[in-house]
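PROTEIN–LIGAND DATA SHEET

This sheet pairs a single protein chain with one bound small molecule, zinc ion, given as SMILES. Inputs appear in the order they were entered. The predicted three-dimensional arrangement of chain and ligand is reported afterwards as a token string under its own label.
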Amino acid sequence: MLYQRTIAKKISITGIGIHSGKKVTLTLNPAPADFGIQFKRTDFLNAEVLVANALTVGATENNTTLGEGENAVHTVEHLLAVLYGLGINNVYAEINGPEVPIMDGSGASFVFILKETGISSLNRSKKFLVVLEPVKVEVGDKWAIIEPADKLIIDSTIVFTHPQIKNQHKVFEFSCESFIEDIGRARTFGMLRDVDTLKRRGLIKGGSLDNAIVLDDYKVMNPEGLRFQDEFVRHKILDTIGDISLIGHEVAAKITTYKSGHNLHNLLCRKLLGTESAYEIVSASSLQKEAVQAFELPLALAPSFH
Ligand SMILES: [Zn+2]
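PREDICTION REPORTED AS:
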């Protein structure tokens, strides 16, 4: 049996939002089985809870935002990717500002914090969304397709004219262990020449070399360099996992993306969820052993029973 997971105890994280530049405290609380991931803004009265679901996404420009207008939580994708990556299905997240802290621009800090907090198994089986027929979305020359496979596989291609990025392609076969090793640590990135334009649009006010890879026209400006030679495509896979986790279940499917971004990932989720014949929701017990084994955690993170 593969059980749903939550966190062992409450934990608070303080940091700044990359776009808002605002300091925020995010408190993650354990939650019961089938609760899902839910966010609540605590900095104004009577804010409605925002369920982490593809249909709750209000904006996808430079980040994934749940909700709209005043009651919104921006930049949820890296936290959601880590929760998916560690097989954590149920968390109640309270946040006293508009944006999840960016930490170091990757998922590494969240993995570290959750390792300290501990993970609990709940006495209910995980549910998987199994894809039955291909679903494709296209916007201009960008596209993404989700199709049947025994386990989650992400085949990602990014194309940039920048000499340090160029074309990068990676196929990632999901397991919690490989997520932590190969994907979770990959940082977000941006071009120095775009900084002014983005700031004028109210974005990346909190961005710096501490929370993003920054490139000038020729090279990476961060003195420590890259964490992986292909860190850029690895980060795209991190974003894809975070955005696809908004399907609300573990996923058994192959996802292939070409020049994708948050918008395309969300369109793919919405089209899939809107195509009844394209998927079914099943209990983990009816899946291939391999899909279940992928959710085994390394010893340091092994779940205890709640
Ligand atoms: Zn990202």
